[in-house]
Design goal:
The protein is α/β, with parallel strands linked by helices. It has helices at 12-18, 28-37, 65-74, 110-123, 142-152, 161-171, 201-210, 215-240, and strands at residues 21-25, 41-44, 47-52, 55-61, 84-93, 103-106, 127-129, 133-134, 156-158, 176-185. The protein has a single domain, classed as Rossmann fold. Strands 1, 2, 3, 4, 5, 6, 7, 8, 9 and 10 form a ten-stranded mixed beta sheet that branches. Strand 2 (41-44) and strand 3 form a beta hairpin. Helix 2 (28-37) runs parallel beside helix 8 and helix 4 (110-123) packs across helix 8 (215-240). Mean pLDDT is 84; it is low at 1-8 and 204-209.
Length: 247
């Protein structure tokens, strides 16, 4: 498969043939481990391609939230059509029974749903098949999360799956769309109200120098992120292995 740094040159037919699966993850901490586990090669700093489990895959890092997601999707070929679209990465718990490392599957098709059950039992994971709620911004405090949970009745929440589904179904009504997320923060966990402006090292240095009180909270979040990412990557790798092409 050729390296494609300029996706605007790729026709609708070529995109469908080369990249029948599109996987979207918001940040480097979510996208890079997945790319490594699926043996995908970097086409640019925020896109990876390759073949895994009988399917050609394009993985893109979108940025956090709906606005960043839509901007990144607009950079894909205008006529691009994907037969399978997966939203993945972290999500926040809205139910006290959920904890870091629990998997939430929303919209898995029958064959993958059955396979997920098998993986769940073999690895001893806690996997929930439930609808993810959509939030416009990060729910950073237990109070906000509990209020949101009361309004939605959902088990977990993220910021990208809902708009990605709308985009995917608008491009191809017949595509398989699913969200496969791992819980990062439990209902009682607090998140930083503000985050670094970018993933660049200088941005993080400035953030921590100017907010020394945030070190302990970020330290706890770092270890949760490491654990959650490892569980998600292992689950995804097993789920997508030998999943076969639809077209």
């Amino acid at each position: 498969m050729p390296v494609m740094s300029d996706f605007s040159r790729v026709s609708k037919e070529e995109t469908s043939r080369l990249f029948p699966t599109l996987i979207c993850a918001a940040t480097s901490w979510e996208a890079f481990p997945i790319a490594q586990a699926l043996h995908l090669k970097a086409a640019s700093s925020d896109s990876f391609f390759g073949k895994f489990g009988g399917r050609s895959i394009l993985l893109i890092k979108t940025g956090m939230g709906e606005a960043a997601l839509k901007k990144r999707l607009s950079e894909l070929p205008e006529g691009g059509v994907f037969s399978r679209v997966i939203s993945t990465g972290f999500c926040g718990a809205l139910n006290p029974e959920l904890s870091t490392g629990d998997i939430i599957c929303d919209g898995l098709p029958g064959a993958l749903s059955e396979k997920a059950e098998t993986i769940k039992n073999s690895l001893g994971l806690r996997v929930y098949f439930s609808t993810l709620a959509h939030a416009e911004e990060a729910l950073y405090s237990p109070k906000i999360k509990k209020s949101f949970a009361e309004r939605t009745g959902a088990l977990a929440v993220d910021m990208e799956s809902s708009p990605l589904k709308s985009w995917a179904k608008g491009k191809n009504p017949d595509c398989e769309f699913s969200s496969i997320r791992v819980v990062l923060d439990s209902l009682e966990d607090s998140l930083p109200a503000q985050t670094p402006k970018s993933e660049k090292t200088l941005s993080f240095i400035w953030y921590f120098v100017s907010r020394p009180w945030s070190w302990a909270n970020f330290g706890k979040l770092y270890f949760k992120q490491r654990r959650a990412s490892k569980i998600l990557v292992d689950f995804l790798r097993r789920l997508l292995d030998d999943s076969g092409d639809l077209k």
